[in-house]
Amino acid sequence: MSLLLLDIKTVILLLVIGHCCVIMLISAYSYQYNNRTIWTFVIGKLLQIIAFTIILFREILPFIVSTFLSNTLLLIGTMIECIALLLLLKYLTATARKAIVIVSLFGLLSFYAAILFYNFDNVRIAIISITVTVLIGFPIRAFYLTCKASILKRIMLILYSAIALSLVLRTYNALFVSTDVTLFAENEYQTLAFLTRFIEMLVGSIGFILLVKEQTDIELTRMAMMDELTNIYNRHAFIQRADALIASALKKKSMVSFIIFDVDRFKGINDTYGHDAGDYVLREIAKVIANALPKEAIFGRYGGDEFVILIPNCQIDRATKLAEALRTTISQYSFQYISTQCTLSLGSATTEVQTAISLDAFYTNADKALYHAKENGRNQVYAVTF
Fold first, then answer.
1. Across residues 13-38, what is the average pLDDT?
2. In CATH terms, are 2-224 and 235-385 the same topology?
3. Of the listed 227, 262, 264, 305, which one is catalytic?
4. Which candidate in 67, 135, 313, 379 could, as Cys together with 343 as Cys, close a disulfide (CB 3.0–4.6 Å)?
C-alpha cells in the first residue's frame, strides 16, 4: 500500500496543470463552434482549477480564502460539470436541474455550518466528499441509462463510478478510520481520491470531447438520412435500406411488398390554404402513417407529396389490408388549418423475391397501380403482383 502514499501537494499541482492543459485543448477545439454544452463544461473546469490552485496554497492564504472560497468553487464547478454532462446526454430535465441545485446548496450550507459550529477537518472533508459523490451520481445514472448504445459511454460510466467509490472511501476514512484527516495527510484513502480525480481530469475530459464528437456524428448522420420536413427517411436513405432489405429477402426467397401513395389534389391544398398548411399536412400524414406501420417496414418520402413503404415478409393480402387501413385513417383524420377532407391514393406491388430484382421494379409496378387508383376515382387502394 506504500505505493499509494504520494505527496498530496504534488498530486494537486498535477491536477491544476492538467486541468489547464485540458481547458486549453477543449477551448481550441470548440472555439469555432457556439456549443453551449462545451462552454458549460469549460466553465465548470475553470472553477475547479481556481479551487485546486487555492487549495495548493492554503497554508499561506487566510482561512476564509483557503477553505471557504476553495470548497465553494469546487462544489459549484462540479455542479456545472455535471450539468454539462447531462446536457450532452440529453438528460437535463427541469427536475434533474432542480435536484442538482438543491444538492449543491445543501452541501454548501452544511459545509458553512460545519465551519461555524463544528470546524474539524474530517467533518469538512466528509461533507464535501459526500456532496460531490451525490452530484456525480446524476451523470452516472445518465451514463447507465444510455451506455448500451456506446462503448465510450460505458467507459465514462466506469470512470465516474470509480470516482464516486473513491470519495465514499475517503468519507469513510475521514469519519471512522484515520486520526490524521487533514487535507495534505498522506494516507491511502486521500491519495486514491486525488488520483482518481486526476484520472477523471484526463480521461473524463477527453471522453467528454469524444462524446461531443460522437453526438455530432450521430446528428449529422440523422440529418443526412432523414427528410427535413417529415422526419422520416429521405429518398437516398430509403433506397439504401430498401436495397439491403431486398437483398436479404432474396436469400430467404420471401415475399416483399412495396406501397406508394400521394395526397389527392395536394396542389389544391397549397393553392387554397398556402404552402405552410401544405407542409403541415405532409408532416401530419407522415407522423400518422409512421405510427401505423409495422416495425419492420421502411418508410420514406420520395419527394413532394409522394411517399413510399417497403415491407418484408408481406403477402399481397396483408399489403392490401394495410394500405386500406392507412387510407381510412387519413380520410378520417381531422387536420388543422384546412377544412376540406384530405385523402390518399395508394398503389401496392408484391412479389416473391426468387431472383435478383431492383427497387426500380417495385417502384414501377406500384406506380402503375397508383395510376389505376387515381384513374378509378382516387381515395382508394389498387394492388398488383408481378
1. 76
2. no
3. 305
4. 379
